[in-house]
Amino acid sequence: MSPTKTTRAIGSTLIAVAVACAIALVGLMLVPSLFGLDRYVITGGSMSGTFEKGTVVYERQVPVADLQVGDIITYVPPQESGIDEPVTHRIVSIDDRTDAEGGRVLRTKGDANDSIDPWTFTLASAVQPRVEGWVPAVGWVFILLSMSGVRMLSIGLPAALIGLMFMRDLVRALRS
Predict the structure, then answer these.
(1) Nearest to 41 by CA among 164, 104, 131, 166
(2) pLDDT band with cut points at 50, 70 and 90 for residue 102
(3) Which residue from 31, 93, 103, 138 puts its CA 20 to 30 A from 150's CA?
(4) What is the DSSP string of 10-70?
């Protein structure tokens, strides 16, 4: 096989692998929504041992009344906690005596944390996302793409390669 044919074969194989990976990634992100599942990327380590940073978790909206001790939920902690990002933690207690707003009082804990979260809370909505499953490591793609430099590189590099191939073909066409 000539060097040109070898280069084309390698290029075709790399493109096929990249397309297959992209299709698999899109499938992991879009197909679950057809089954009523939401997805979140775990960006912290508080649930290590159950799932690690970079895991994609799939959650289903369930009635708050259906939540049980041991369920893993994603929620935004109360304002006084000082945390304004969603956390994914396990429910460790539910007080069925309702608070002043009429909701069930919950306590949670990250599986890797030594202590229970210092706050109690009620859920404002009648439904709550509960973790139904997860896929390890896939979320790293999205964590990396959240960095502007990586995102620019992942778009710019393929665009530059396409531009170079176009220029190569244009030069060849002009020569003949």
Answers:
(1) 131
(2) low
(3) 31
(4) HHHHHHHHHHHHHHHHHHHHHHHHHTTEEEEE--SSTTTTTS-TT-EEEEEEEEGGG--TT
Amino acid at 76: V
Residue 73 has pLDDT above 80, yes or no: yes
Instruction: Please report how many Cα atoms fall inside a 13 Å half-sphere around the Cα of residue 13, on the Cβ side.
Output: 6
Quickly count: other Cβ atoms within 10 Å of residue 55's Cβ: 21
Residue 90 neighbours by CB under 8 Å, 6+ apart:
47, 50, 70, 71, 72, 108, 109, 110, 111
pTM over 0.70: yes
Please state the separation of Cα 131 from the chain's center in Å.
Answer: 13
